[in-house]
Write a structure and sequence with these properties.
Blueprint: E1 2-6, H1 14-20, E2 32-38, E3 41-47, E4 51-57, E5 60-63, E6 65-70, H2 71-80, E7 85-91, E8 94-99, E9 102-107, E10 123-128, H3 132-137, E11 155-161, E12 164-170, E13 174-181, E14 191-195, H4 196-202, E15 209-214, E16 219-223, E17 227-232, H5 241-244, E18 251-256, H6 257-271, E19 277-283, E20 286-293, E21 297-304, E22 306-309, E23 312-317, H7 318-325, E24 332-337, E25 344-348, E26 351-358
Antiparallel strand pairs: 1-5, 1-7, 2-3, 2-6, 3-4, 4-17, 7-8, 8-9, 10-15, 11-12, 11-14, 12-13, 13-26, 15-16, 16-17, 18-22, 18-24, 19-20, 19-23, 20-21, 24-25, 25-26
Helix pairs in contact: 6-7
Length: 365
């Protein structure tokens, strides 16, 4: 294998490659990445057996071939090289990387030991337009669970609703829903659960991105012109999310997102030593946020807003509020409350197809 490419053509892919390479693996080959020079182009592949990626790098192919090299060290080396042409060549059990007067040699393992990350792409199910993946999922994946004991909660539900798609994530304490009107998943099933981690990685993809489902292999693929990311569909029964959405409320208050976030971060100084609990009181078009920590002190912040309905109060895990607000690009947010023991609904006036629900924390009197 002999290949020539520019550092600039590969550096934007290095963060994605690095994130997928497992930190500690009992299977040595997974710590390697696969380099393939073919007549169709130069490809870099990586996998941790849960998620895999294959990237096409613009390059001049002088000689076809393939080899695997230690992934972490290879990406670190490329990140440290000057922005110039890079020449790589493989011989027997080694691969040489040359850039200006720098020469790096890596030991290699044969391509045959590297897992096949893709059986076949399968059927195209949906195409996201440029920027649509970020628009749909930036406020969803934060609600997915990190606990593998309930795999279905670590994913994002794609649910077909007539001529719309509901995208939903929940960890049992909070729930995010984004409705995509005039959308259709072209599959003979009403719902799919995709790994949230797969979607998080796919949010870095630029341009139009296609979703493929290979049912027989239980695989899902997200692909644009340069990058293919593959994972496995999650089998399991997603909770009935529609039952969780409150049908009514007694209080609404609309607030400035950035001001709300800034005051919550101040309040969190005291909440972090008090089980992350913040008490919120709504009255006279104002929100009062209180967190108390024995031995530290108390934080009390007041924020003005636009209130409708009666006065109310509730308590939350402050981390859930901060997670939501820091992922909102819009200017305002509306909170709908019923009582201290019922879930609260957060809506964005500028994005009526999105809602977020947070379960309250019950305070002991």
């Amino acid at each position: 294998m002999k290949v020539e490419f520019l550092i600039e053509n590969i550096e934007k892919f290095l963060p994605l490659i690095s994130k997928i390479i497992p930190v500690h693996s009992q299977i040595p080959i997974l710590s390697n990445i696969l380099l393939e020079a073919t007549k169709q182009g130069f490809y870099i592949s990586t996998t941790n057996l849960e998620i895999g990626a294959r990237i096409k790098v613009p390059a001049k192919i002088e000689e076809v071939g393939a080899a695997t090299v230690p992934g972490k060290q290879f990406t670190e080396a490329l990140s440290s090289l000057p922005k110039d042409k890079v020449y790589i060549s493989s011989e027997k059990d080694s691969l040489k990387v040359k850039c200006r007067n720098n020469v790096i040699t890596f030991q290699t393992i044969a391509k045959e030991e590297f897992p096949n990350i893709l059986e076949q792409k399968g059927e195209k199910a949906y195409t996201f337009s440029e920027g649509e993946i970020g628009e749909v999922f930036e406020k969803l994946t934060l609600a997915a669970s990190l606990d593998d004991s309930r795999p279905e909660l670590t994913g994002v539900l794609f649910a077909q609703k007539d001529n719309a798609i509901d995208f939903v994530a929940t960890d049992g304490f909070r729930l995010s829903l984004k409705k995509k009107r005039k959308g259709k998943i072209l599959l003979n099933q009403e719902s799919l659960i995709l790994p949230a981690r797969l979607i998080i990685e796919a949010m870095s993809l630029l341009g139009e991105t296609s979703l493929y489902i290979y049912k027989k292999g239980n695989q899902v693929v997200l692909e644009n012109e340069e990058t293919l990311i593959v994972g496995r569909l999650i089998n399991g029964e997603f909770p009935n999310y529609e039952r969780v959405i409150p049908a009514s409320f007694k209080t609404t208050i609309t607030l400035d997102v950035q001001e709300f976030l800034q005051k919550l971060r101040l309040t969190s100084i005291f909440a972090r030593d008090a089980a992350n609990i913040v008490k919120i009181s709504v009255s006279d078009s104002k929100v009062k946020m209180i967190a108390r920590s024995s031995g530290v002190g108390e934080g009390e912040m007041v924020l003005e807003g636009e209130q409708e309905g009666e006065d109310n109060e509730i308590a939350f895990n402050i981390k859930f509020l901060v997670d939501l607000l820091k992922n909102i690009q819009e200017k305002t947010i509306t909170i709908e409350l019923s009582s201290p023991v019922e879930p609260a609904t957060f809506r964005i006036p500028e994005d009526p197809d999105f809602l977020h629900i947070i379960m309250p924390v019950r305070l002991q009197e």
